[in-house]
Specification:
Layout (H helix, E strand, L loop, with lengths): L18 H9 L12 H5 L3 E10 L3 E6 L1 H4 L10 H11 L8 E2 L15 E2 H6 L3 H11 L1 H11 L23 H13 L6 H11 E2 L6 E9 L8 E9 L9 E10 L5 H13 L6
Antiparallel strand pairs: 1-2, 1-8, 3-4, 5-6, 6-7, 7-8
Helix pairs in contact: 4-6, 4-9
Amino acid sequence: MARAWEERPANRPGILIPAVALLVALLSPAALNAQDWLPFEEVFGEFNACAVLLTRDRHHEDRIEYGAQQCALPQSPCSTFKIPNALIGLQEGVVSGPDHAKAWDGVVRDREETNRDQTLASAISLSVVWYFQSLARDVGAPAMQAWLDRLGYGNRDISGGIDQFWLGNSLRIDAYQQLEFLKSLSHGTLPFKPAYQSQVWQMLEQPSKLPGTLHGKTGSCRGNEGEPDHGWFIGWIDWDTKNPAKPKTTWFVVNIRGAGAWGFKARPMALELLNHLKPGD
């Protein structure tokens, strides 16, 4: 059985891009391949990688892609599935909100911070697998299957077991599907109560040195049956929350594959790329 877990992010040095090259690319994204002006190979290093970044304001939309073959590859969502899992749990009423507590099951796991009682909010922030396994069991297979069918989430396959299917198991989703799901969530157009979508937005909020408000979730799966390890960092950033009259948002999906390709490594890589897209550059 594959094992999924989360680890803490590590800092990586920034990589500078000539301002003129970046300006040209943003003004005419179709004229340049993203690889010509964003240092993807330096950012991702030894990992095989996929990156999809979609930036939209009131007047323009710019889409950047790297590693199209990997982006189109269906892979386990790993702990990024905590996003729909939380929404489904809220809608089904098996959790009442961010403060809904579950008692620790007493099983000692590698990460000490998971070995205690958790709330829904802390379980998302700390990526506590056992909490969401319990939540999924409470939802039950029939309701879970119905929701994945309604959402069109990946291949919708929960045959790997109600508390295992997203952990390197039967459920698979590609980067483009992840992006569309995130866009719908950020717009509040998923088939869940608006209040529940808003609660999940807030629980996904993360600190960063970037301007604006960052929402994101990591995911990590150990490879099995000849597959490599892979990690995700997905989310969106609202760049100028102080000026709602000029909204600008970038949705992003970053996936890395290879030995030790965990989500905590994908996160700073995604932030490096986002740093080059921030307003004013």
